[in-house]
Amino acid sequence: MARLSLRRNMSYMLAGNVMYALSQWGIIMVLAKLGSPAMVGGFTLGLAVTAPIILIFDLQLRSVLATDTKNEYSFQHYLTLKGIMSLIAVCFLGIVILIGGYHGPTALVIFLIGIAKVIESIIELHYGLFQKHERMDMIAKSLIIRGSLSLVILAALLAVTNSLLLAVIGYTLTWIVLLIFLELKKAKQFIETRKVASIDYTIVKKLFLTSFPLGIVMMMISLYTNIPRYAIEQISGTEALGFFSAIFYIITAGNLVINAIGQSISPRLASHYSKQEYPMFTKLLSKFVLAGFAYGLVGILLTLLIGKQVLGVIYTQEYMQYHSLFVLLMIAGTFMYAGSFLGFALTAMRKFSIQPYLSAIWVLATIVLSIMIIPAYGLTGAAIVTIITTAIQQLTLFFAVIGYLSKEKKTF
Predict the structure, then answer these.
(1) Of 231, 311, 362, 398, which residue is the least packed, with the fewest Cβ within 10 Å?
(2) For the whole model, what pTM was predicted?
(3) Out of 105-109, 140-144, 157-161, 191-195, which region has the weakest mean confidence (pLDDT)?
(4) What are phi and psi of 200, to 5 degrees?
(5) Ramachandran area for residue 5 (φ above 0: left; ψ -120 to 50: alpha; else beta)
(6) CA 363: distance to chain centroid?
(7) Under a CB-based contact definition with an 8 Å cutoff, are residues 174 and 146 in contact?
(8) CB-CB neighbours of 173 under 10 Å
């Protein structure tokens, strides 16, 4: 199939990710309006508990596949490794739920959200295949369908049953059905249809060793994002976590737009770097890092002007008292948006080995700051921790990218 232009790919991904972000944000709004802050807290607790587990076993295979310009591995190798890692992730999740002392409906909600995230991880691998062939339109359409259906089904079940557990069951089943009947069918257009006699597990092992550092990185990123949430849940309870998570989700939704652009330019960045076109690589990256800053600054301005009213409209009047928290989290979002492009650049350069060390710095900083600040300042303290750690993330990624580029230019 013919590749699309960079402009068209970015347009498709922007549209798809915006719609997906709105639908996932809609889930939080539905839980806030039809349920309660405790329901929001329960749902986001499930996301926080499962995310590090799912992400370490995800190995960020989507990015590895999308930037595999030399075709070192076949899609069957990626899919085989993904299947193995998914089974391990589910088993590990069950162990964590038992050790964590979760029980009853809470344990079931966490487990089902984990299953949904495993399915999403497999879907994301297929997105990597479409991304590699620069067919972002296929990803965008999938995001819109998946996001819309999951929102509608969850909202309908919650309205009828007022049960978070039944709503999450519907949410999870939706993604399973879409994987089977939508993504698998589309993937056949890009891979050989002949049956593979056997899989060379030596190659699968090599792929695992290549991508494992990225799994560590993603787990670390998830931990450094969620450690403040764990602290809030332990110190202030699930309801306070619901307020924090609902407001932070607005910033996260904004980052999905950044991710859409980053995923679109990743193959182009990888191509420039592999061809030693360093000036073009630097120019493209610089443009989007600055765009990320500008995007965040606009968000801060809008939050200052109309943030309180926005919280009241999209959630409930209870959330309006957290306007100052909203402003602080948007400041953190500004660093997050700019730093995301630097992360995409480092992966496009296929510099995987350094990333676990960088993420370890972020996690360590988050743990120390959370212990020092959150017990004394509560939700405001959690926001301050988020600002500092996202700034640290951006600076370390910046120096890593600059360091590698300087080294390559000298060698070249």
Answers:
(1) 398
(2) 0.74
(3) 191-195
(4) -80, 105
(5) beta
(6) 17
(7) yes
(8) 16
